[in-house]
Amino acid sequence: MTKKISESEKKKEDWMNSKWRPMMGWMYMVVCTMDFIGFPILWSLLQSMSHGQVNSQWQPLTLQGAGLFHIAMGAVLGLAAYGRTQEKLGGANNGGIQMPSNAGTTYVPPGQGQVNVSNQPGYSQPQSNFGGGFNGTSASDFNQPVSVTVGFGGKSAPPSASQPLI
Asked: Of 47-56, 111-120, 126-135, which gets the smallest average pLDDT?
């Protein structure tokens, strides 16, 4: 007896291949939470119950060895995120979501030309006249010269405060 395998079953990845990135993130979060929050509390409770006082401080295990654990996990998670981004840009399965054929992207790899935004829905050229601003200001109000007070050494100084009349 032969088992018939559907097309969706053929395309389906092994659960370990599809879930290892989130599992690494969750594992790192649990390890850091326990090493910096959970274990110090348990260490203090254990000391206070057995000796009546807390004599020594918890030394985080992940910081021993110059924090190599955190450096390694940063590299693993960073490279995993970068790799997944490259897979998505290359057209890998986006969680079963089928993108429409007219959906474009503004991502252009470095050195391969300019961004084409004409394929984006609802795009129009920006207008050169924006109208009035806050409190009745306009674009010409911002092009006025500003007087700068020069202090010691040629550096700009704050304007002098108004003096009260005596």
From this structure: 126-135
